[in-house]
Specification:
202 residues, eight-stranded mixed sheet, 14 strands
């Protein structure tokens, strides 16, 4: 069973619909004990970095997530990916979960609209367990105004939006982050969610 974390900033229904479509068992929870029992954890998110960290803190989820993301498959989506990093600059400097080194900064796309909303092609930098079954010419759907600035060794894929935008990151162990929305990204997104579910069964 995959635990989908409900912390007041999640795009829960779209994620739940995608998991149901794939017949992947899941539960929506904000209970740390249920995260402990889950085979994997999915952290969705839409909104602002400081609010997300505030809500995670108020629900007592920060320390459990920091530990469990090193013990079982963990996937952060959109804002859920951004809070994996050490710090975000949205609204005010805010400490993140610190699972990946780096900061989350304002998206700089000269001549293009911000927020970045729409479909972009994934450009793979390296293979990882989530990318093994991607269809040819993989396109995914983005909605964001800030972007991560990861270390090169953690970058799996990027998209071109006025320059390279980190799209998929991995700590080379259990923790993954997708700036795009797999649950809204057609065949490519469903393939990624299916692969994540398969990792949770191992």
């Amino acid at each position: 069973m995959i635990a989908v974390v409900d912390y007041g900033a999640g795009n829960l229904f779209s994620v739940a619909n995608a998991l149901e479509y794939l017949s992947i068992p899941y539960g929506i929870t904000q209970n740390p004990a249920e995260l402990e029992q889950a085979d994997g954890i999915l952290l969705p998110g839409v909104g602002a970095f400081p609010h997300a960290m505030q809500m995670l803190g108020e629900k007592g989820l920060v320390q459990p997530i920091r530990r469990l993301a090193k013990e079982k498959p963990f996937l952060g989506i959109c804002l859920g990916m951004q809070v994996l990093f050490e710090e975000g600059e949205e609204i005010q400097p805010t400490q993140g979960l610190g699972l990946l080194p780096g900061r989350v900064v304002k998206l700089d796309a000269p001549g293009l609209a911000v927020p970045h909303m729409g479909w972009n092609r994934l450009e793979l930098r390296r293979e990882c367990p989530l990318t093994q079954d991607l269809p040819p010419d993989p396109y995914v759907y983005f909605v964001h105004s800030f972007r991560a600035a990861p270390q090169p060794e953690h970058l799996v894929a990027w998209a071109d939006y006025g320059g390279p935008v980190p799209a998929l990151v991995w700590d080379k162990a259990y923790c993954y982050g997708a700036q795009f929305h797999p649950e809204k990204s057609g065949k490519t997104g469903l393939a990624i969610l299916r692969r994540f579910a398969s990792l949770c069964k191992q």
